[in-house]
Amino acid sequence: GSLLVGLSGSASGGSNHFLGGGMALINAFSIAAYLLIGRKLTHRLPALPYSWIVFTTAAFITLLMILVTNTPLFGYGWHDWWLIILVALIAQFLGHLPINAALKYFSATYLNIAMQLSVLVSALFAFILLGEVPTVPQLIGGTIILAGVTLVSWK
């Protein structure tokens, strides 16, 4: 389902599909490692301290990537900084923190499958906030994702 959604993106989306595909593959391996390591550590460490370690590590890696790629750190207005901070806080506290807490109670495999719902949530937000109407293949892919997550959840 996710493959169908991804491959049927808008015609104006990006010029280097191989780079995007490669980055998606790296992301898939990174998420798998993140969940497997988190599953082991959350049994020894409460979710909040574990999340603090993960978030701090991610911030340092992001800063390193900013420096390596020569991306400017300054020159942004206050409005831009507030938006950056807002996005970071929402992603961390409404996204990753609940996942980290759930790792204590659910398997990494189950959470990884459940996280496929993020594709649907993103599409819903894109529709509501940006007026982006999904294509027919994206709707079919979304239906497959929803059916798959539902099927796995009914055990």
| Order of secondary-structure elements | HHHHHHH
Could you estimate the helical fraction of the residues in percent?
over 70%
Give the tally of β-strands: 0
What would the principal axes of the Cα set say about the shape?
globular
How many alpha or pi helices?
7
Mean pLDDT: 84
Instruction: Kindly report how far apart the N and C termini lie.
Output: 20 Å
What's the gyration radius in Å?
18 Å
What portion of residues belong to β-strands? under 5%
The SS-based structural class is mainly alpha
In the predicted model, the low-confidence regions spanning at least 5 consecutive residues are none
Please outline the major beta sheet: none
Description:
The structure is a single chain. This protein is an all-alpha fold and 155 residues long. Helices cover 75% and strands 0% of the residues. It contains seven helices and no strands. It has helices spanning 2-7, 17-41, 47-68, 78-102, 108-114, 117-130, 136-153. The longest helix has 25 residues, at 17-41. The protein is globular and about 45 Å long. The two termini are 20 Å apart. The mean pLDDT is 84.
